[in-house]
Specification:
With 146 residues, this protein is mainly β. The protein is 7% helix and 46% strand.
Amino acid sequence: MRGWIALGLLMASPLAAQEVVDCGFAARADAIYEPWEEFSRTYANGEVRVALLDTIEPAAGSFHVLVLSPPYDEVGGRQCKTIGLENNIGFSGIGFEEIQADYDPALGLTFHIEVTYYEPEFADYLSGSLIFSLNQQTGAIEAILE
């Protein structure tokens, strides 16, 4: 049942734009939020790692989600992606401590994280749920912010 709910959420219209990008500026080792053991989780028998990143600037959007996952490249490295808002802007806050993950064979791994973000249109901070799914076979990551 929860898988169908997640599928419906993934197909719903997002409230704000978000993007999944190849690791770049946000995925530096010094951006992994500390203590690492509290803000990093593994799933799928250690094949998938999700971690909280803090790039410090911009202050209103410095938090990103790091995803290391299959598929593996020709030398055995996992794909590396970050999830944030548009143009390398992250979230204002991420409730990483309460991250939830579910697995559905039709969807793959699905993650739910509460976030806050700055919305310039309203000149205010808003709260929402970041929901993203990971297909380990293809490496596709789909994300929405509700």
